[in-house]
Amino acid sequence: MTFEVTYQNARYNIKSFLKNHPGGLNYLEPYKELDVEKRMKITHSQAATYLLEEYRLELQKHENDLEKLVDWSKPMLKQVGNLGTKYKTWVNCPVDRDLTLFENPLLEMLTITPWYFVPAVWVPVIIYLIKLGTQRYIDLTRDPSPTRTIVLYIFLGLILWSFIEYSLHRWVFHMEPTGKSKLLIYVHFIMHGLHHKVPFDTRRLVFPPAGSAIIGSIIYKIVSLIVPDYMIILLAAGGFSGYLMYDMIHFYLHCGAPKENSYFYHLKRYHNQHHFAQHNSGFGISSTFWDQIFGTVINLRSLATSIRW
């Protein structure tokens, strides 16, 4: 089966893109076998136009000039440093492909994470931290009714994570490496750039546990300098719980089909805008709270018809 459209006198089969289109299936259905040039110019970003070239039919196949700068049949990490000043433009132009990061099979395997692996790793860790933190709090304070305090510390850990989530996404993942530093390009690409380049690669929608453990350990060490031992353990339990929810929400926003007026429906629209139109806004994934505080919120336009993914 095909779902063909015409754009600038070329034919495109966007059948495989239907499930990923930010505007939903129902906004695409009326355009089957029609010319979409006018619609593309009115409502679509430059990234969307770039992405459309992925689906050009073979007889008219065209490779975007930027993609000629790399070899997609080879591991990508060692190539991106050579893009120099063109890296920022290239990484923000999405393609619908699977990406190989490392030549070494073991390293490559460590960067590919099925979504269910994240809760399998972190739920036992969170349970252990709650038990350990609770026991240390009781041993130290002899509090006969510790539940309220323990829940409070875990909740504070959740709040702390929400700020860390925003901060990492905005100031670390979206740093802008200059073409003069290959190292910064490598770091940016492996942390987050690859996700913007291949947003539909479902193997790379959640953070590998090894990487999240490293980041979590660094944050743990910093916070432990200013708070008591039992408190940092309970804060960590709340923080890792927040991280777990974040990673699962992020996966769902890319692959799920939330219903209209639901919390996740709004977040999916919001995150799609971040990916394909407003890269420098909308850094919140699990909530928009900190975007509103720091003035980076994306104001979504009202729609005549709800989106059906």
From TrEMBL:
Q: What are the transmembrane regions?
A: 112-130, 150-168, 205-223, 230-253
InterPro entries noted in UniProt: Cyt_B5-like_heme/steroid_sf (IPR036400), Cyt_B5_heme-BS (IPR018506), Fatty_acid_hydroxylase (IPR006694), Scs7 (IPR014430)
Topology in the lipid bilayer is annotated as:
Multi-pass membrane protein
Establish whether keyword Transmembrane helix is in the entry.
yes
Pathway, per record: Sphingolipid metabolism; Lipid metabolism
Q: Where do the coiled-coil regions begin and end?
A: 45-72
One of its Pfam families is: FA_hydroxylase
Q: Known PROSITE patterns for this protein?
A: CYTOCHROME_B5_1
| Keyword terms | Coiled coil, Endoplasmic reticulum, Fatty acid biosynthesis, Fatty acid metabolism, Lipid biosynthesis, Lipid metabolism, Membrane, Metal-binding, Oxidoreductase, Transmembrane, Transmembrane helix, Zinc
Any one GO MF annotation of this record: heme binding
Which metal ions or organic cofactors does this protein require, according to UniProt? Answer: Zn(2+)
Where in the cell is the protein located?
Endoplasmic reticulum membrane
Could you name the domain of life of the organism this protein comes from?
Eukaryota
Q: Where is the Fatty acid hydroxylase domain?
A: 155-296
Q: Which PANTHER family match?
A: FATTY ACID 2-HYDROXYLASE, FATTY ACID HYDROXYLASE
* Protein name, entry field: Fatty acid hydroxylase domain-containing protein
Please tell me the species this chain comes from.
Ceutorhynchus assimilis (cabbage seed weevil)
- Please spell out the taxonomic lineage of the organism that makes this protein: Eukaryota, Metazoa, Ecdysozoa, Arthropoda, Hexapoda
